Amino acid sequence: MTEIFDKDTLKKSFGSFATGVCVATSHSGGFTVNSFSSLSLEPPLMIFNIYKTETDHISFLSLNRFIINFLASDQQDVSNLFASKDTDKLSKVSHYKNEKDMAILYDTLGHLELSVYQQIDIADHVLVIGKVEDLSINNEKEPLIYFKSKYREIK
Ligand SMILES: Cc1cc2nc3c(=O)[nH]c(=O)nc-3n(C[C@H](O)[C@H](O)[C@H](O)COP(=O)(O)O)c2cc1C
User: Fold this and answer.
1) pLDDT tens readout for residues 71-113
2) Which residue's alpha carbon is at the smallest distance from atom 7 of ligand 1?
3) Tens digits of residue pLDDT in 13-60
4) 40 vs 114: CA distance, rounded Å
5) DSSP state string for 80-96
6) Peptide bond into 43 cis (omega under 30)
7) Where are the beta strands (DSSP E) in the chain?
8) Atom in ligand 1 nearest the alpha carbon of residue 125
9) Domain 20-153's class?
10) What pLDDT score does 1 carry?
């Protein structure tokens, strides 16, 4: 089917929607994510997507758990690291492991500890619905924003 817009224009349109930035982590690594959305309060659900061509989602989700770390305005370097192909990202950021062996980053706006509730394959992405098992909130920090392919801060 011929579209009336090209891929670059579509990308620009999607990029006109400002988002926060998070890092999804599990037992051995993680990656930068801005497709996070809250989904439901009862049950407590969120959703995000994994681009299967780039990320080994099977390894990432192999323990059926993951963490969403909400990045603060001073964590652009953390976002860049986790958007890279570095093979040992966790060793380069301060973090700890919870009792389920999930890596949790320090100095963020807070995090969600999740179990995998459902996975839906769509084209080259997998939609992951996570159930919140625990969380923490840091009220002292401001968010990192992503808008039109650039990082921003709330002023
Ligand atoms: C701001 C930003 C948001 C991103 N959001 C997503 C996302 O929601 N899902 C995804 O699969 N990749 C997303 N990416 C791309 C991944 O972070 C990138 O492909 C990363 O290199 C994957 O790491 P890995 O190869 O170690 O899995 C995003 C990148 C940036 C910079």
Assistant:
1) 999 999 999 999 999 999 999 999 999 999 999 999 999 999 9
2) 33
3) 999 999 999 999 999 999 999 999 999 999 999 999 999 999 999 999
4) 14
5) HHHTS--TTGGGGS-EE
6) yes
7) 19-20, 22-25, 30-33, 37-40, 45-51, 65-70, 95-97, 103-105, 110-122, 125-137, 144-147, 150-153
8) 11
9) mainly beta
10) 62
For residue 32, the CA-to-ligand 1 centroid distance in Å is 5
How far apart CA 48 and CA 33 sit, in angstroms, is 8
The number of the ligand 1 atom at minimal distance from the alpha carbon of 33 is: 5
- Rounded to a whole number of angstroms, the CA Rg of the chain reads 16
What residue ranges line ligand 1, CB within 6 angstroms?
Answer: 21, 29, 31-35, 48-51, 54-55, 82-85, 146
How much distance in Å is there from the Cα of 53 to the middle of ligand 1?
A: 11
For residue 103, the tally of other CB atoms under 10 A from its CB is: 21
Helix (H) or strand (E) run with residue 14 in it: helix 7-15
pTM tops 0.85: yes
Domain parsing of the chain, residue ranges: 20-153
